[in-house]
Design goal:
The protein is an alpha/beta fold. The protein has 16 helices and ten strands. The strands form two sheets. It has a five-stranded parallel beta sheet with strand order 1-2-3-4-5. Strands 7-6-8-9-10 form a five-stranded parallel beta sheet. The structure holds 2-acetamido-2-deoxy-beta-D-glucopyranose (2 copies). The site of one 2-acetamido-2-deoxy-beta-D-glucopyranose (NAG) has 3 residues, from loops. It is a single-pass type II membrane protein.
């Protein structure tokens, strides 16, 4: 009982504090510049710093696949499609492969959805292999480096490991033919076989227009202390429990389902986006993969992301000061989440909120169409530009081969 009333006092207190914040906003103290080497990088302009050659592939590798299932355009893996469209008309595109710094192969490996909209990665390895076979026999550039100056968008759960179950993904490892390429992927976890050194971790796709249409006035106080909507258990795939989210989501539910500071549930309300704008903290726990679109949503809606995913590598981690805007909580500390969050000083919360209000932070999380300066497309290009010039060692001697075309599961070697 005591615990409960204490919670309500805090709730009211935080509402007052955040009203104050809203007041400050009106006074014009809107955002805080992100100073220091990290945040400044967000505003870099990649144009003029790199040239990208886009391979022209038969439409069965991209457009035809999309025609079969237009849902792929709104899926959280849609970055592979929008990045293609973006590059076709981007000022960094060159039609002359001889002057290119980077080569891009437009292949939509995640656009194979079940009736429920879950992507199936089973055909992806064969499809990717087929595309690489095609570019390596029709152009001389692949063989020159065996892909070391090529980048691929592989937004699937575990990137180029192409499986949605972590154990299987680890067993498969990164597709052998992609082992020299730069991978642009949503999956990010330190010391994991599915995250290669030098990969670029990007945010999952979240529909920009849809989010825009749910914005509420910033003067509305953030009266929810902690907010979360989503699964706590995945009984279908993890009947015994403990594997899904490594038990972290279950621990959130078991410890805080009755805590008045926690607005958590599996119900996905129509006011989901509005609710995030009325919340101080938004939980972003791992699920099957460490990342989820919640992280993007939290940043867009100015809700401090509480990241519960040990060893996660966050999107554009070399440009976005995640430690300053979010809160990291170890998976094992979930039972203390209430104490951890209530003991963060008000001025720290206010500073995080001001940083989150910075438009360049939000811009970097989105793949808008048409593109806008500083958006996720530009951050990907910035990442690629920062890797230039290529080290001389990436160029192979004539006839030298490093990759093994027959490595990997036999089923992956079948033609696509
Ligand atoms: C690249 O190497 C492969 C196999 O080693 C070969 O079949 C192909 O013809 C080469 N591509 C070009 C353009 O020479
Ligand atoms: C390539 O991989 C296959 C299958 O794992 C293996 O049998 C073969 O020995 C490898 N080739 C080389 C040159 O390492």
């Amino acid at each position: 009982m005591r615990n409960r009333s204490w919670g309500f006092i805090l709730l009211v207190l935080s509402a007052i504090v955040l009203n104050l914040d809203a007041f400050e906003l009106r006074k014009g103290q809107k955002t805080e510049r992100i100073s220091g080497s990290a945040g400044d990088v967000l505003e870099d302009d990649p144009v003029g710093r790199l040239k990208v050659f886009v391979y022209e592939l038969p439409s069965k590798y991209n457009k035809k696949i999309l025609q079969k299932d237009p849902r792929c355009l709104n899926h959280m893996f849609a970055a592979e499609i929008y990045m293609h469209r973006f590059l076709l008309s981007s000022p960094v595109r060159t039609l002359n492969p001889e002057e290119a710094d980077w080569f891009y192969t437009p292949v939509y490996t995640t656009c194979d959805l079940t009736p429920n909209g879950l992507p199936l990665p089973f055909k992806s390895p064969r499809m990717m292999r087929s595309a690489i076979q095609l570019i390596s026999s029709n152009w001389p550039y692949w063989n020159r480096t065996e892909g070391a100056d090529h980048f691929f968008i592989v937004p699937h759960d575990f990137g180029a490991c192409f499986h949605y179950q972590e154990e299987k993904a680890i067993e498969r490892g990164i597709l052998p033919l992609l082992q020299r390429a730069t991978l642009v992927q949503t999956f990010g976890q330190r010391n994991h076989v599915c995250l290669k050194e030098g990969s670029i971790t990007v945010p999952p796709y979240a529909p920009p227009q849809k989010m825009q249409s749910h914005l509420i006035p910033p003067s509305i106080p953030r009266s929810i202390f902690v907010y979360f909507r989503g699964l706590f258990y995945d009984v279908g795939n993890d009947p015994e429990g403990g594997y899904y989210a490594r038990g972290a989501r279950a621990a959130v539910w078991e410890n805080f389902k009755d805590n008045p500071l926690f607005d958590i549930s599996t119900e996905h309300p129509t006011t989901y986006y509005e609710d995030m704008q009325r919340a101080v903290f938004c939980l972003c726990p791992l699920g099957w993969a460490p990342w989820s679109p919640r992280l993007v949503e939290a940043v867009i809606f100015g809700c401090i992301p509480v990241i519960i995913a040990d060893d996660i590598v966050l999107p554009f981690a070399d440009a976005i000061p995640w430690e300053d805007i979010g809160v990291y909580v170890d998976e094992k500390d979930v039972p203390n989440l209430d104490t951890i969050l209530t003991s963060i000083p008000t001025e720290v919360i206010l500073r995080k909120q001001r940083l989150l209000a910075n438009p360049s932070m939000k811009q970097a999380m989105l793949f808008p169409h048409p593109a806008q300066s500083g958006d996720a497309f530009h951050q990907i290009l910035n990442g690629l530009a920062r890797k230039l010039p290529h080290d001389k060692s990436v160029y192979l001697r004539k006839g030298e081969k490093v990759l093994n075309w027959t490595a990997g599961p036999l089923a992956d070697l079948k033609p696509w």
